[in-house]
Design brief:
By secondary structure, the protein is of the alpha/beta class. It has a single domain, classed as NAD(P)-binding Rossmann-like Domain (Rossmann fold, 3-Layer(aba) Sandwich), CATH 3.40.50.720. The chain contains five helices and nine strands; from the N terminus they run E-H-E-H-E-E-E-E-H-E-H-E-H-E. The strands form two sheets. It has a six-stranded parallel sheet with strand order 3-2-1-7-8-9, with helices on one face. The chain has a three-stranded mixed sheet with strand order 4-6-5. Helix 4 (124-134) packs parallel to helix 5 (156-168). The protein starts with a strand and ends in a 10-residue tail after the last strand. The mean pLDDT is 92.
Length: 185
């Protein structure tokens, strides 16, 4: 029997896990993997959801150590040029990152049903491009998240090119906003 998997990038203290558990009717059938590299938010995630696989690691394009720029808890980012959320380019902590393509290939099968959620404050452009280039989407069934292109100074044409490339392989980033019930599970 194939597994059902929920992978959440940018857990924000467990809010996205709570939202998934409350609003997805069959959430109890899912194996949950939640990533949060903000140390304060990771501690909240572990406290609120000790039953999930949680990682104090940033979803990224390689296994590495990167600067994570702090701001308001919901606005901190790997992207130094993020202009919202109180991000301070002079205030960072070093965080581990994981190659999300490698993580998926090492841990899951193509037959698993995987819901992948990204709310990673601008880093979604690098991550999604990497996933397209590596063929990671052959593992994904549903893609949810938030776009942050105006907040990181990305040109709208670059944003649109990524959206077009996702559509060309049969995906769209369904809008995700924790604490709302507007999702169509």
């Amino acid at each position: 029997m194939n597994r059902k998997i929920f992978i959440g990038g940018g857990a924000m203290g467990g809010i996205s896990v709570t939202d998934f558990k409350i609003n997805k009717p069959d959430a109890g059938e899912y194996e949950i993997h939640s990533f949060e590299c903000n140390p304060e938010q990771f501690d909240k995630l572990k406290y609120r959801h000790p039953d999930v696989n949680s990682y104090p690691i940033a979803i990224w394009t390689e296994d590495s150590t990167l600067p994570f720029y702090l701001g308001k808890p919901w606005g901190s980012s790997l992207m130094k040029n993020k202009t919202t959320g109180g991000v301070n380019p002079n205030n960072s902590v070093q965080v581990e990152s994981i190659d999300i393509d490698k993580f998926m290939r090492d841990n899951f099968d193509k037959g698993d049903y995987i819901i992948f959620k990204l709310d990673i404050e601008g880093a979604e452009y690098e991550v999604l491009r990497h996933m397209i280039n590596r063929g990671t989407f052959e593992y994904i069934d549903e893609l949810w998240g938030e776009w942050h292109w105006p907040k990181i100074g990305l040109l709208e044409s670059e944003h649109d090119a990524l959206v077009d490339d996702l559509q060309a392989i049969g995906f769209e980033l369904k809008p995700w906003e924790a604490n709302t019930k507007n999702k169509r599970w």
